[in-house]
Amino acid sequence: MVKISIFVKDYTQIMKVEIKFFLLLLTVALISCKQDDGNTYPDDYTDVLDLPETPFNYSNPTFPDTFTDYVFSFDNTPTDNPVTDDGATLGRVLFYDKNLSINNTISCASCHLQEFGFSDNRIKSLGFDDGETFRNSIGFANAGFYGAEKFFWDHRAETLEDQVLMPIQDDVEMGMTLNAMIDKLNDLEYYKPLFTNAFGSQQITTDRISKALSQFIRSIYSYNSKYDIGIQATKNIFLDFPNFTYLENIGKDVFNGKRTPEAIGTCVTCHLPNADPLHYELPIPEGANQVIFSGAEPDNVGLDDNINVPDNGVGEILGVISLYGHFKSPSLRNIEVTGPYMHDGRLPTLEEVVEHYSTGVKAHPYLSAHMKNSDGEPRHLDLTEEESAGLVAFMKTLTDHDMLNDEKYADPFVEQ
């Protein structure tokens, strides 16, 4: 009996030691695959994706104070889809994943390249079978501040969440059905921890894909350009910027209408949306928008003189003839690298864009009102050679090299 009791006692101790050792091994195993922020990944995760142990900061950028409360009133982020670090990380992977196309050759990033301000340097982008897209790829820096909220050149998407799913299903662009996309992603192991981190479970749904892609796109903020340094110094777009060249300041005054105070058809009309507080008197009212360069509504800028064209934009989508030839006024952020220009890519250079507004606006029957003179004829800015060169120089000050090279917006795949 003594021997038995000793054996039982010793056996119990052995079991306790073994259990402790097992728990220790389990803890070490969990810690080894668990990141500092609570994210867990499979062992072969880094063979596919190069992601930081702690997610990049997408959700809490440090905006300059020129991004006022009034500017933030343009924010189109829905209450049920705020940007989170894990959600945007998942969105980044989805954005660059060619598995979202039917033959694994095209990703969202194929037509929206970071180096080109998330646009394409082709007139028309190429889809999964080398077919050309219908329109020129539009850049989307600060897409979250597009106050009109609707997306695409023709505003056919009610929200960004709607927009991000449409190219995936397009017969030319990516050629997928949403069900087929979900089936493909379910077979890719690297998505399980990404969806868990972003949404609390591995479940892959169309809604979650839409939300994650939208979070990533909304996180692509641009506020570190030469212009931002100048407006931060002066807080007033009508004053000369100390960091600008002579030519850049001339271009800024062409843009803001200071050189033609009687005119309403200058660049500021379309590219500083809802900028009613901006008048030519000084000082600028506190909180005025001087940093968001996207139009508040679609416009007809006189590219054509009739409606017998392949693409009539918003009017065609809505069936409203008075809106024929109207298209979104895109952001001028990073405009230096987003060419070719206009909805169909017809203008290769910024110089040609400026020349259009200087001398080339056509008498379209539904030309926007601010593109007309008092007699109803197309309004031409009739810029001097110096003013034209200055306007091009000014637009180049909106290039944000930090954004164009930021790793958190770059391709996370080791290789595809």
Description:
The chain has about 425 residues and is an all-alpha fold. It folds into 3 domains: about 30 residues; about 170 residues, Cytochrome c-like domain (Cytochrome Bc1 Complex, Chain D, domain 2, Orthogonal Bundle); about 170 residues, Cytochrome Bc1 Complex, Chain D, domain 2 (Orthogonal Bundle). Helices cover about 35% and strands about 0% of the residues. The longest helix is centred in the first third of the chain and has 31 residues. The termini are far apart.
Please provide the ordered H/E string of secondary-structure elements.
HHHHHHHHHHHHHHHHH
**Helical region count?**
17
CATH superfamily of the largest domain: Cytochrome c-like domain
Class of the largest domain in CATH?
Answer: Mainly Alpha
**Mean pLDDT across all amino acids:** 88
Task: Give the total of beta strands.
Answer: 0
Radius of gyration: 27 Å
Q: What gap, in angstroms, lies between the N and C termini?
A: 69 Å
CATH topology of the largest domain: Cytochrome Bc1 Complex, Chain D, domain 2
Q: How would you sum up the major sheet?
A: none
How many structural domains in the coordinates? 3
Produce a short descriptive summary.
The chain is an all-alpha fold. Helices cover about 35% and strands about 0% of the residues. The relative contact order is 0.14.
Q: Which features does this protein show?
A:
single chain, 416 residues, mainly alpha, Cytochrome Bc1 Complex, Chain D, domain 2, 17 helices, 0% strand, disordered N terminus
